[in-house]
Amino acid sequence: MSSKTKNNPAPKQTVLSDRLKNRGEREKRIQLDFVFGAMMIAALFFALWKTHYGYRDYDETFFLSMAHRLSQGDVMFKHEWNLSQMAGFLLIPFVKLYTWITGGTEGIILAARTVYTLLHSGVAVIIYLRFRERRSYVIALACVMFFLFSPFSIMAYSYNSMALDLITLSGVVLATANYEKKLPLILSGLMFAGAVLCSPYMLFVYMFYVFCVAVHHILKKIGILKGFVIGSEMFSVKTLLWCTVGAASLAVVFLVWLLPRVSIGEILESVNRMMGYSRLQGYTFGMRVSSYFRSIYTLVDGFMIGLIVFGVNTLVMVIDRNRSKRAGIYLSVSALCTLYTLFLIIPKSTEVYFNGIMLPMLYVSISSYILCKNKPRELFASLFVVGILYSFVAFLGSDQGIHIICVAFTAANMAGYVFLAQVLKEMFEDREIKLPFKAVRIAALVMVIATLGTQLWVQVHVKRVYSFWEFGIDTLDVEFKDGPAKGLYSADYTVNKYETIYNDIQYYKSKEPDNLLVIYPNPWIYLELNDMRYAGYSAWIGDDRYTSASEVSQRLLDYWEENPEKMPKYVYIVKGTGWDINTLFGPFVGKGYTYFENDVSYKMERTNNN
Q1: H/E element holding 475?
Q2: Which tens digits make up the pLDDT trace of 408-463?
Q3: With 0-12 CB in 10 A as exposed, 13-18 as middle and 19+ as buried, what is 365?
Q4: Coil, strand, or helix at residue 603?
Q5: Torsion angle defined by CA atoms of residues 435, 438, 439 and 445, in that order, rounded to the nearest 10 degrees
Q6: Rounded distance, CA 286 to CA 283, Å?
Q7: pLDDT category, 5, cuts 50, 70, 90?
Q8: Can you tell me whether residue 26 is helix, strand or coil?
Q9: Which helix (H) or strand (E) is 379 found in, with range?
Q10: Between β-strands 570-574 and 515-519, what pairing exists: parallel, antiparallel or unpaired?
Q11: Phi, psi (deg, nearest 5) at residue 308
Q12: Of the candidates 424, 333, 415, which has an alpha carbon nearest to the alpha carbon of residue 371?
C-alpha cells in the first residue's frame, strides 16, 4: 500500500457515520445517567426518611459502644472481650468527631444512621460509575437495589454492613481495573483489609487468592491459561503485589495503633478466651459445613422445589453445547425459580427472614453467567466467587445462620446483575436467531422484568414497613426526646421503657466519672453516660437466653482479675433481666459496696478500695 493511500483521509460518509454513532452513544449514556440519578435521589430521600423510624436497643447501639469505649482509651483485646470488636476500629473516627462537635452523644444513633445512608449511597454510585460504559438499565437498577438493602434492616454501620460495602467495592474496583495502573489495585486491597477487620475469617479468602496467583504463575509457564478465569491478569503476581500494598497499609495503621497497648501474646490469649465464650464452641468444621448447606435448603417451606427445578435447569444448560440458542428458555426457568422463591419468602420478609429476600436472585445470577458468551470473568472471580466465600466464612464465625449467609449473597448478586445485563445484550444483538427463538427471548425478557420488578417491590415494601425487630411502621409514632436515641420514632411502649431508664440513670450525672458496670443488654446506657468508663468485659454481656447469671458472674471475676484497674466504682442493674439477681450480686459481696434499689433498678457504689 502506498504512502499516498495511507495518508488519504477517511471518506466523509464514514466520518459522519462515526460522529452520529458517537453522538448516539453519548445521548444513551446521558439518558441512563439521568434515569439512574433520578432513581438514586428518590431512593436516598426515601432512606433518609426511614432513618428516623424504629429503635432496638440491642445490636445497633452495641456497634457504637465498641467504638465509643475504644475512643475513651480502652485497649482492644485487653479491655474488650467480644469477637467482633475489630470493626469498632473503623468507627472510632465517627464517634470521636461526633462527641467532639456536640460535646456528648445525644442524637448519635440518628447521626450514625444518616452517615451510613450517605456513605452507602456513595458506594452504590461508585459501583454504577465503574459499570457506566456498559450502558445498562439493569445495572443502574441493581445499584439502586444494592443501596436499598441494609443487613438485618439495621440502617447503621456494623461489622455486617461495613463488610458488605467493602467487599463489594473491593471486588468491583478489582474487576474493572486497568492492571497496568497501581492506584485501583491499592484501593481494592485497602478496602478488602477493612472487610477483614469486620469479618476476620475473610483472611482465608485472601490466602485463597494468593493460592490462585501461584496457580496462574504455574499455568502461564505451561501455556494453558487461555479461556480460564484464572488466566486473567487479575491473578498476576504484580496485581497481587499492589493489592497487598493496599491491604498492608491499613494493617500497618491498625497494628501501629494496637501493639503499643497490648502484646501479641495477650491478643492470642484473648482470642482463645473469646472463642471459648462463643456459642459456636463444640461444633466441628464438618458440622459447620453441613449446617451451612442445611441453613440454605431449609430457609422456608417449599424452598426445595425451586432448588431442584433450578438444579435440573442448570445441569441441562451446562451440558447443552448450543445453549446460547436456547438462552431464553434457560433464563426464563431461572427467573421463574427466583419468582417462586421470592413469593415463598414475602410473607415472612417483615419478620426475622428479612435478609432472605436477597437469596432468590442467585438463581438468575448463576444462569446468566453460564449463558454469557463474553463472560465477565474478572467480576465472576473478584465479586461473585468472593461473595459466596464470604457467605461461608461469615457463617463460620457467626451464630446468625441463614441470615448472615443471605447478607453475603447481596455482594454475589451485584455481580450477577452485570452477568444478566451481558446475557440480555447478547441475546438481542444476535440477528441470526429464527422467529420461534426470538419469541422465547421476548418471553424471557418479560420474565426478567417481572423478576426485577418483584425484587424491587419487595425491597421497597420491606424497607418502608419493617424496622429491626419492630413490626409495623404505622405504630412507630412516638418520638424520643433525649439521649442517644433523640430524634427517632418508635412504639409507645419502647419509648416509655427507654425514658424510664433514661430518667433513672441521670442519677450518675452528678457523680464523679469513674468505672461503671451496666448489667443489661442495653449498651445505649454507656453512650448516655458518656463520661463514665466501661467496667465490664463488653458493653454487651449477653442476655438470659444464651448466658446464665453464673457465667456472667464468673466472666466478670476473670476480667477484673486480669484488669484490676477496671473494677467498677458504680454498678447498675436494670430490673427484669431474667437473670438470678442474687447470683449477679455475688462478685460485689464483701467488696465495700453500698446498695440502692428502686422500681427500675439496683444500684451499687463502692465506698472503699477493699
Answers
A1: none
A2: 999 999 999 999 999 999 988 876 666 666 788 889 999 999 999 999 999 999 99
A3: buried
A4: strand
A5: -170
A6: 8
A7: very low
A8: helix
A9: helix 377-379
A10: parallel
A11: -65, -45
A12: 424
Task: Residue 428: count other Cβ atoms within 10 Å of its Cβ.
Answer: 13
Answer yes or no: is pLDDT of 475 > 90. no
Q: Locate 568 and state its grid cell.
A: 467498677
Q: Which residues of 512-548 are buried (b: 16+ CB within 10 A; e: fewer)?
A: eeebbbbbbbbbbbbbbbbebbbbbbbbbbbeeeebe
Strand partners, 594: 605
The string of DSSP codes covering 30-86 is HHHHHHHHHHHHHHHHHHHHHTTB---SSHHHHHHHHHHHHHTTPPBTTTB--TTTT
Q: Which of 436, 361, 358, 336 is nearest to 138 (CA)?
A: 361
CA separation for the pair 331, 317 (Å, rounded):
10
CA–CA gap between residue 576 and residue 573 (Å, rounded)? 9
Confidence bin at 31 (pLDDT 50/70/90): very high
Query: Collapsing DSSP states into helix, strand and coil, what is residue 224?
Result: coil
Judged against a pLDDT cut of 70, whether residue 353 lies above it is answered with: no
CA dihedral sign, ordered 430, 433, 437, 443: positive
Q: What percent of the chain has pLDDT over 70?
A: 92
CB 199 within 8 A of CB 394: yes
The partner residues of 573 in beta bridges, in order of sequence, read 519, 602
Q: Is 116 left (phi over 0), alpha (psi -120 to 50) or beta?
A: alpha
pLDDT on residue 208 = 95
Closest CA to 232 of 213, 246, 218, 207: 213
Length of the chain as a residue count: 610
- Of the CA atoms within 13 Å of residue 529, those in its CB half-sphere come to 30
Shortest CA distance to 87 belongs to which of 65, 120, 63? 63
